[in-house]
Design goal:
heterotrimer, A alpha+beta (117), B mainly beta (80), C alpha+beta (100), A: alpha+beta, SH3 type barrels, five-stranded antiparallel β-sheet, 3 helices, 5 strands, 43% strand, C: 100 residues, 33% strand, U2 snRNA binding (chain C), RNA-binding (chain C), nucleus (chain C), ribonucleoprotein (chain C)
Chain lengths: 117, 80, 100
C-alpha cells in the first residue's frame, strides 16, 4: 500500500475556505451553495453569494427551487454535510445528490480521497 | 498566529442593521440586530415575524418592537 | 453570560414569553438564571385562552430551553449598551478562542 494521508474534518473544512461549497441541512431538504468565507471551532459556517436550493417532491418527481440570498451565517447544529461544489451541469448534480443520499457516508470519503489525488 | 475572523465575529459587523433570521418551524424574522451571543441568542428591534404554512403562502405576519430570540431555533442569519 | 445580564436588567418589567409549543404567557419577570430559565409573576395567557389550564396559576417557572421568543417593551432596553456588549465579544465561551 502507498502512504495513506488521512484528511481529518477540520483540515478538510479549512481547505474548502474560499471555494464553492454545498451545505446540506438536516431539515426540509434544503441546501446552500456559495463561497465558504470562514468557519469556527463549532463548525458554524459563513457563506457568500449563496443560493438556497430546496428540493420538493411532487408525485414522485423531485424539483429544485433556487434563490439567491447573498451572504449568510449558518448555525452549526443545522448542518448535515459540507461538500465542494464542482462546476458541473445542473443535471449531474442532481444525480450525484440522489446517489449520495441513498448510499452510505462511505461514499463521501471516497470522493474526498479522489479530490486530493 | 491565526488572526482569521470567525463567522460569529463577522456577524458583529451587522449590529444595528437589519437582518433576516431563518428559524425552525418555517418561520423567518426580520429585525434590527441589537445584540447576540455565541449561542445565536439575539435581541431584535422593529421586528417582523413571518410564519409559512405548507403551501408556502405567507400565512402570518406579526410585528414586535423588541424581541429576544432563543438561539436554538436559529437556522441561518442573513443581512438585508 | 451576556443575555443573563440582559435579562437581569428586565426584572420587574412586564414581558410576554412565547414558548415553542405556541403558548404565549404575559407576566412580570421576577428572576432569571444562567440557563435563561425564567420566573414570572401575575401571569395571564395572551393566546385567547386556548390553553385554559393556566387560569388559576399566578406565578410560574419556565425552563429556558422551551422559550422561543421573549417580547418586551423597547423602553426597557438600552440598545447601545447591548450592541456594545456584543461587539466586545462578551459571550462566555472559552472554546471559541481556540485556533481553528
Amino acid at each position: 500500500m502507498s502512504t495513506f494521508q488521512p484528511i481529518n474534518p477540520k483540515p478538510f473544512l479549512k481547505s474548502l475556505i474560499g471555494k464553492q461549497v454545498i451545505v446540506r441541512l438536516k431539515w426540509n431538504k434544503t441546501e446552500y451553495r456559495g463561497t465558504l468565507i470562514s468557519i469556527d471551532n463549532y463548525m458554524n459556517l459563513q457563506l457568500d453569494q449563496t443560493y438556497e436550493i430546496i428540493y420538493e417532491v411532487e408525485d414522485g418527481n423531485e424539483t429544485k427551487k433556487e434563490e439567491s440570498i447573498g451572504e449568510i451565517f449558518i448555525r452549526c447544529n443545522n448542518v448535515l454535510f459540507v461538500r465542494e461544489a464542482k462546476s458541473e451541469p445542473q443535471e449531474t448534480e442532481i444525480e450525484t445528490e440522489t446517489s449520495v443520499a441513498t448510499e452510505s457516508n462511505g461514499n463521501e470519503n471516497g470522493n474526498k480521497e479522489m479530490e486530493t489525488d | 498566529m491565526s488572526t482569521k475572523e470567525e463567522p460569529l465575529d463577522l456577524i458583529r459587523f451587522h449590529l444595528d442593521e437589519f437582518v433576516l433570521i431563518k428559524l425552525r418551524g418555517a418561520r423567518e424574522i426580520k429585525g434590527k440586530l441589537q445584540g447576540y451571543d455565541s449561542h445565536c441568542n439575539m435581541v431584535l428591534s422593529e421586528a417582523e415575524e413571518y410564519i409559512y404554512n405548507d403551501s408556502n403562502d405567507d400565512v402570518e405576519t406579526k410585528k414586535t418592537e423588541m424581541v429576544f430570540v432563543r438561539g436554538d431555533s436559529v437556522i441561518l442569519i442573513s443581512p438585508i | 453570560m451576556l443575555f443573563f445580564s440582559f435579562f437581569k436588567t428586565l426584572v420587574d418589567q412586564e414581558v410576554t414569553v412565547e414558548l415553542k409549543n405556541d403558548m404565549e404567557i404575559k407576566g412580570t419577570l421576577k428572576s432569571v438564571d444562567q440557563y435563561l430559565n425564567l420566573k414570572l409573576d401575575n401571569i395571564s395567557c395572551t393566546n385567547g385562552n386556548k390553553y385554559p389550564h393556566l387560569q388559576s396559576v399566578k406565578t410560574l417557572f419556565i425552563r429556558g430551553s422551551t422559550v422561543r421568543y421573549v417580547h418586551m417593551s423597547p423602553n426597557s432596553v438600552d440598545c447601545t449598551l447591548l450592541q456594545d456588549a456584543s461587539r466586545r465579544k462578551l459571550w462566555f465561551n472559552p472554546q471559541s478562542r481556540m485556533i481553528v
